[in-house]
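Objective 1b of the project was to move from sequence-level analysis to a structural picture of ligand recognition. The entry below was assembled by the postdoctoral researcher (A.K.) and checked by the PI before modelling. It contains the amino acid sequence of the target and the SMILES of the bound compound, flavin-adenine dinucleotide.
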Amino acid sequence: MSGGTRCNITQATDNRGIVAAYGAPGKFLHSALGFLWRSGDHRVFEAEGVAVKVEETGKIFPVSTRHSTLLQALLNRLQRSGAELALGEPLLQMATTAMGFTLATPLRTVTTPCVILTTGGQSYPGFRHKR
Ligand SMILES: Cc1cc2nc3c(=O)[nH]c(=O)nc-3n(C[C@H](O)[C@H](O)[C@H](O)COP(=O)(O)OP(=O)(O)OC[C@H]3O[C@@H](n4cnc5c(N)ncnc54)[C@H](O)[C@@H]3O)c2cc1C
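Corresponding predicted holo structure:
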């Protein structure tokens, strides 16, 4: 939303700058942002061939100003990682087993030693009600 549909990648500052902009409650962000900076923030996209620009406000955007540019970069990286992307296949049930976890979708049951849940949330709950 801060980018007005142009896909704002990040701000031209470091993790301390972002925490400071968030205000006093932002201390909890230090560990996650510290990891992000070590792994490269917008340089992740540049490494995938995405040209980025820094605006006067410090906001960093893809030069294309299209979210599809960033999506394709992430998909390229995902493909190289060997991970499988399963779309349109919601997780219905998850159970622990002696070996790890069993995941049930409408299409299959998967067993796996570990699970990372990233089901999102309401990034800006007020936005939904204003539409
Ligand atoms: C209008 C708008 C504009 C924004 N603009 C920007 C911007 O310019 N720059 C920026 O950095 N951020 C922006 N954001 C914020 C950004 O979109 C979110 O912070 C980000 O998408 C959160 O990522 P996430 O992976 O945590 O969750 P999500 O992107 O919400 O992903 C969670 C995924 O989990 C899936 N899921 C949920 N339940 C299940 C289930 N049972 N089984 C399988 N899958 C499931 C969902 O379908 C979804 O695909 C914007 C947000 C909004 C609403």
